[in-house]
Amino acid sequence: MAPNVSDDSMTAGETDDLRVGRRKAMRYVVPVTVIGVAAATIGLVPALADSGDPDLPKITAQQLLDKIAASDVQQLSGTVKISTDLGLPDLGGLESGLLSGAAGKGGDGSSADPSAKLTELASGTHTLRVAADGPDRQKLSLLENAAEYSLIHNGKDVWGYDSSSNEVYHSTTDESTDGAGEPPATPKDLTEDALKAVDDTTSVTVDGTVHVAGRDAYKLLVKPKQSGSTVGAISVAVDAKTGLPLKFTLTPASGGAAVVDAGFTQVTFAKPAASTFDFTPPKGAKVTEEDPETAKDGTDAPEHFGDGSGSTDGTDGIDGIEGTDAADGFDVLGKGWTSVAVLETGGKGVPSDSELGSELGSDAGGALSGFLGSFGDKVTGKFGSGTVFSTRLINALVTDDGKVYVGAVTKDALVKAADSAK
User: What are the domain boundaries of the chain?
Assistant: First the structure.
């Protein structure tokens, strides 16, 4: 249904046109492999009349949505700052333990594998350099202390390079992959997925103007109408000239700092030099080729650049706020911002210390056990009993009989959903 957009409303045909337009525009924005975490932005700051914000022509929310849908940016380069604060407890040695454990269970262990390397974006603040030249050439570089990790897509080749270890990961892509499995990373990616949640459970308004990366922008404010969602508001700074989202901010209903921040600090729309996307493995580098069998069936295959169409095999978008469409493999309870996904694990719920140690090794299993125990809450209801694992955005209820309820909803909403399923 149509969003609540000030004075305008969308017909069903206009909604379809908007979705098609967004997907067209999406093809030309750096589709990056990060993690399946919905988050990246800095705080939501209301526009003040005397704040020095740009004086732009008045625009309705519907017109701003149309501007985003019509955006057709094919070339860009710039710097993006990403901050993520999911409110997770200190991971300690968990990340390295899990990765090393996975490598010991058959993974190649390459530090240049993007499916492992880019998990670093799950927490903290990071600086990225991005460049794009149409659907076939993109580059992302994660800047680190005295080192750099780069992910380059040039034609059918996808290269990951970790300068700190001098390791290279190589895979290939073709039209059949169609960008499947790529989680959102840039402001455009995040906005694309967030707008899929816009329906009659959503309020959409224009919230003034702002300067971002030296450019004039409008602010689009998206807020759930429903209670029970952990999402407080989503603010998108939209370039007044190109319609490209320059900054995406998601703040939680609980208040405080934004859960995530993805915003350009510098951007230009000039065509990047062709050499930007050239890559040859450095002398002496360890080169790991993608396993063709895992790439074929999608098991443990590294995420990579695609054509950016936004098509996936499962649920697109931010976990828990995708809307009411059920993805393959699980059901969805409720609608809109309070929808909850239900997964059948076939297991017994939260694994024991011994089970974790057996699966991941003693170090990784012990780290994960301590991690889970540090933020899990025991709950009971008509569904039976289980454990709720909470972040500032995504919460999950793992029942003792092996069901998982997950969404961008409160603990009480999860328990209510589990009870209603009985």
Answer: 12-297, 331-420
Q: What does pTM read for this prediction? A: 0.72
The residue with greater pLDDT, 224 or 180, is 224
What is the C-alpha to C-alpha distance for residues 202 and 1, in angstroms, rounded to an integer? Answer: 10
Closest CA to 20 of 59, 72, 60, 63: 72
CATH level 3 topology of 331-420:
TATA-Binding Protein (3.30.310)
Hey, what long-range contacts does 100-105 have (CB within 8 A, 24 or more apart)? 100/361, 100/363, 100/364, 101/360, 101/361, 101/363, 101/364, 101/365, 102/360, 104/361, 105/360
Q: Do domains 12-297 and 331-420 have the same CATH topology?
A: no
The tens digit of pLDDT for each residue in 110-138 reads 888 887 777 777 788 999 999 999 999 99
Cα 163 to Cα 269: distance, rounded to the nearest angstrom: 28
Q: How many residues does the chain have?
A: 422
pLDDT at residue 335 is higher than 60: yes
Percentage of the chain beyond pLDDT 90 is 45
User: In the prediction, which pLDDT does 90 show?
Assistant: 52
Q: Give 88's DSSP letter.
A: P
Model confidence at 283: pLDDT above 90: yes
CATH number for 12-297: choose from 2.40.340.10, 2.50.20.10, 3.40.640.10, 3.40.50.2300: 2.50.20.10
Q: What's the rounded Cα separation, in Å, for the pair 21 and 277?
A: 27
